[in-house]
Design a protein that fits this description.
By secondary structure, this protein is mainly α. It folds into 3 domains: about 35 residues, no CATH class; about 100 residues, Homing Intron 3 (I-Ppo) Encoded Endonuclease, Chain A (Alpha-Beta Complex), CATH 3.90.75; about 55 residues. The chain contains 8 helices and 4 strands; from the N terminus they run ααββαββααααα. It is flat and about 65 Å long.
Length: about 200
């Protein structure tokens, strides 16, 4: 029984680290479960700030002080009243600096790894495929795969041992699963590379 979120006055059920999903997500994305999302952008002012960013040639992170989405990325409404559809500022800047995205699936990737903190520095942005952008997250230590996943049941060393024993063939997957207190299906997925494959693939 996990009980409720440990944040005072939050009635939601605890999910990880004693926090509910919302507060855990705030901690993971922004470093604090108390992060408060800015939901509205003052009309007119962000456009002026955006224009000034396009002439910025420095390497230091410039952070967007206005509206952000629920992942912490800077966003803006192009409506005169600030109430219309919201766009990612990083995409607007990336297109201005690097031209249109090569394909509709390309993403504005941050070389600094601070996109989730609303960095909008032109020099830090480039077009990248979803796979390339995911690799950036791993390099910057922001991926939730492996032991960083709140629901992970195994450490990386344990996964390597499960893979070794399952590949050895001297034990049944059910026996291995019992030793590690996991489901037999998880042993099978680890052996086949369907789970934790990025860790075990080089061991084949």
């Amino acid at each position: 029984m996990r009980g409720n979120c440990s944040i005072p006055e939050c009635p939601k059920p605890a999910w990880a680290r004693g926090w509910c999903r919302m507060h855990y997500s705030r901690w993971h994305l922004h470093g604090s479960p108390h992060f408060v999302l800015v939901k509205q952008t003052p009309a007119g002012v962000p456009e002026k700030f955006l224009a000034s960013l396009l002439s910025y040639t420095g390497d230091k992170c410039k952070f967007w002080p206005y509206a952000k989405n629920n992942r912490g990325y800077a966003q803006i409404s192009r409506d005169a009243m600030g109430r219309g559809k919201r766009y990612l500022v990083s995409r607007i800047i990336c297109e201005s600096v690097n031209g249109p995205a090569p394909t509709p699936t390309h993403q504005a990737a941050h070389s600094c790894g601070n996109g989730h903190l609303a960095c909008v520095t032109p020099k830090h942005l480039r077009w990248a495929t979803p796979v390339e952008n995911a690799a950036d997250m791993v390099r910057h230590g922001r991926s939730t795969r492996g032991v960083k996943c709140a629901s992970a049941k195994l450490t990386e060393d344990q996964v390597a041992e499960v893979f070794r024993r399952a590949s050895d063939g001297r034990e049944t997957q059910a026996e291995i699963a019992k030793d590690f207190e996991i489901a037999q299906t998880l042993v099978s997925m680890i052996k086949l590379g369907k789970r934790w494959g990025w860790l075990t693939r080089h061991r084949e």
